[in-house]
């Protein structure tokens, strides 16, 4: 991947690896359980995972950082042709996007008097995004340091990452709604105001 500050980019990726290592040191069992969700046969396994792990924690703060750092890389690759933002300017935008989004979710929970339920949504969001990001990280290394993939395939992979990042969390939210306990209208409001509109706003700002 062409990158103006390639040495800094390598340090950036090493920092991501260090965060993953710190995550395993902090709570090896929880992160391993999260990564193994697709390989469990029980249909309720994902729901059980979230029922047992529903607190804001240092591990989820690490997840949050990993999501921002890895997502920034894939978005940067997609917008390289326009070169509207350099890598680190884009990082600030992506960070503000996620912070604003989760803050708005908590505020919506307070307004609707459903803070605990929206807290569950945020935690599921963070975990699923971290899960997707970690599985795409090896592909990011391949894209960054090899010429194995064509430009077209690289763009497809990056677009696929962002698509799965959005669709997977919505799927888990709907699948876990019995556990979350939101009404259908609340889910629609959440998807419209805190999923669709922010993504459209980010897309327009990067266009």
Helix content range: over 70%
Tally the structural domains: 1
**SS field, number of helical segments:** 8
Assembly type of the chains comes to single chain
Output the helix-strand order. Answer: HHHHHHHH
Low-confidence stretches: none
**Major sheet characteristics:** none
How much β-strand is present in the residues?
A: under 5%
Number of extended strands: 0
What would you call the shape?
A: globular
Q: Termini distance?
A: 20 Å
Backbone CA Rg:
17 Å
Q: What structural category arises from helix and sheet content?
A: mainly alpha
Overall pLDDT: 83
Keywords:
207 residues, mainly alpha, 81% helix, 0% strand
Structure in a nutshell:
This protein is mainly α and 207 residues long.
Write the layout of secondary structure elements.
Elements: H1 6-35, H2 45-52, H3 58-78, H4 87-111, H5 115-145, H6 151-175, H7 177-180, H8 184-206
Q: Mind explaining what this structure looks like?
A:
- This protein has one domain (6-206).
- The mean pLDDT is 83.
- The two termini are 20 Å apart.
- α4 runs antiparallel to α8 (184-206).
- The protein has 207 residues and is mostly helical.
- The relative contact order is 0.13.
- The chain is 81% helix and 0% strand.
């Amino acid at each position: 991947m062409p990158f103006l500050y390639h040495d800094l980019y390598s340090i950036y990726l090493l920092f991501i690896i260090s965060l993953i290592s710190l995550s395993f040191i902090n709570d090896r069992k929880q992160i391993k359980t999260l990564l193994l969700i697709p390989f469990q046969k029980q249909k309720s396994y994902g729901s059980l995972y979230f029922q047992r792990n529903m607190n804001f924690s240092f591990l989820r703060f690490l997840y949050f950082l990993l999501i921002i750092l890895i997502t920034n890389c894939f978005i940067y690759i997609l917008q390289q042709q326009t070169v509207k933002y350099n890598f680190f300017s884009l990082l600030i935008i992506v960070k503000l996007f996620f912070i604003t989004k989760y803050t708005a979710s908590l505020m919506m929970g307070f307004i609707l008097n459903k803070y605990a339920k929206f807290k569950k949504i945020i935690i599921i969001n963070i975990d699923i995004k971290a899960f997707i990001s970690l599985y795409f990280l090896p592909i990011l290394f391949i894209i960054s340091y090899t010429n194995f993939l064509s430009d077209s395939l690289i763009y497809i992979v990056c677009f696929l990452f962002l698509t799965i990042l959005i669709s997977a969390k919505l799927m888990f939210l709907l699948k876990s709604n019995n556990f979350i306990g939101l009404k259908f209208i609340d889910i629609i409001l959440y998807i419209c105001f805190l999923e669709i509109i922010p993504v459209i706003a980010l897309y327009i700002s990067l266009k």
